[in-house]
Amino acid sequence: MPLNSSMVGHTTKPSAFTYTWKTLATYALGIGARREELEYVYESAPGGMKVYPTFGVIPSQGAVFEALEAVGAELPLIVHGGQTLRVHRPLPTSGGTLTTRATVAGIYDLKKFAQVLVETKTTLDDAPIFDTVWSIIVRGVGGFGGPRPPQSETPAPVPKDREPDWVVEEATSPEQALLYRLSGDENPLHADPEVAAKAGFSQGPILHGLCTFGFAARAIIRKAAGGDASRLRAYGAQFRKPVWPGDTLITKGYALEGGKVAVVTSVKGRPDPVLTSAWAEIG
């Protein structure tokens, strides 16, 4: 069934998301936080608890799925194509209720597929805290005569004439997807071998793209922001290849002017990058 292009511009009703320190710790563990990152997983850590800013994708999930339902995108057909996040201020770790609205920003024709862009704005106490843009690919519903997606340039392209300024190699666990899904993305593609096989992944359930996104963000914070997560102001990436729980991720960073960082993430032992057009802005 074709997507409902008349829904471009549609904005969802406010979606509430209440969090506590446990919500933040569960997310941090889902994106690979280790015990030496105690301040992200322990509510009484010396100096106070901290939060990884990529948590901003979590409260927006409900509104995004509501927007996708409004355009007629069926869950088994969607693939996450890319993600951007902008942080307006650090999230208080004491807990609270966040409010998100999602807007269908565009529906584009990719011949065999369609691309849906969903923008979200999340507030806390009526003040902006996170903005996101989700690029969602919907399989099998292209060819409807709609517009092609606009050309976009990577804010921080990877330099071709030099080696990276830093490299972080980190293994995911075989249970990584099962842990990450506790933060809200319960798509069985990431848990059920039979569902994964029907989707073409005979090797087994794949890791959430946003889990890989989080692993790379931790590497960026460690190497480009001096370990200070509050300095990560904006971050984006395209998801190119699947990652399986247990894979080892290799993230390379290139320091650029103006506090920008170009990033690429690959899986050890495989040639093709899994995150491309990746970039970050460090404050």
General description of the model:
This is 3-alpha,7-alpha, 12-alpha-trihydroxy-5-beta-cholest-24-enoyl-CoA hydratase. One of its GO terms (biological process) is fatty acid beta-oxidation. GO terms for molecular function: (3S)-3-hydroxyacyl-CoA dehydrogenase (NAD+) activity; 17-beta-hydroxysteroid dehydrogenase (NAD+) activity; enoyl-CoA hydratase activity. It is a single chain. The protein has 283 residues and is α+β, with helices and mostly antiparallel strands. It folds into two domains: 151 residues, Thiol Ester Dehydrase, Chain A; 131 residues, Hotdog Thioesterase (Thiol Ester Dehydrase, Chain A, Roll). Helices cover 17% and strands 34% of the residues. It is built from five helices and ten strands, in the order βααβββββαααββββ. A ten-stranded antiparallel beta sheet has the order 1-3-4-5-2-7-10-9-8-6. Strand 9 and strand 10 form a beta hairpin. The longest helix has 16 residues. It is globular and about 55 Å long. The N and C termini lie far apart (45 Å). The model has no long low-confidence stretch (mean pLDDT 95).
Separation, N- and C-terminal Cα atoms: 45 Å
CATH topology of the largest domain: Thiol Ester Dehydrase, Chain A
Mean of all residue-level pLDDT scores: 95
Helix % is 10-25%
How many distinct beta strands?
10
DSSP strand (E) fraction? Answer: 25-35%
Helix and strand sequence: EHHEEEEEHHHEEEE
Largest sheet descriptor: 10 strands, antiparallel
Describe the global form.
globular
Domain Peroxisomal multifunctional enzyme type 2-like N-terminal: 17-140
Domain MaoC-like: 161-252
GO molecular function, one term: (3S)-3-hydroxyacyl-CoA dehydrogenase (NAD+) activity
InterPro entries: HotDog_dom_sf, MaoC-like_dom, MFE-2_N
